[in-house]
């Protein structure tokens, strides 16, 4: 459960980074997320498993070029060097979380594109 809680925290941090939220605010919000209930983590874990299943069935992949573009985007948001951001993600073991997050976003876009709304 701890691994999934850490993953949830990282996903939230990544979302905040992508939106350009100041690092001090991200640190404050990180503590709130860590104290979230196990039930919430379980819901997110189930959703993540479903998204992974759909990604496999629909052959949704993230290319290295897409990862580099995302890292560059994060670096621009913080006026930082792209290689430095990449190395920090690697050092913290968060590059796989970044890829996973990007893959889930791609799956969500696919689902929204293919959705048929019935009334």
TrEMBL record:
The keyword Isomerase applies. It comes from the Bacteria. SUPFAM superfamilies: Triger factor/SurA peptide-binding domain-like. GO terms for molecular function: peptidyl-prolyl cis-trans isomerase activity. Keywords: Isomerase, Rotamase. GO terms for biological process: protein folding; protein transport. Residues 14-112 form the Trigger factor C-terminal domain. InterPro entries: Trigger_fac_C, Trigger_fac_C_sf, Trigger_fact/SurA_dom_sf. It holds the Pfam family Trigger_C. This is Trigger factor. It comes from Candidatus Brocadia fulgida.
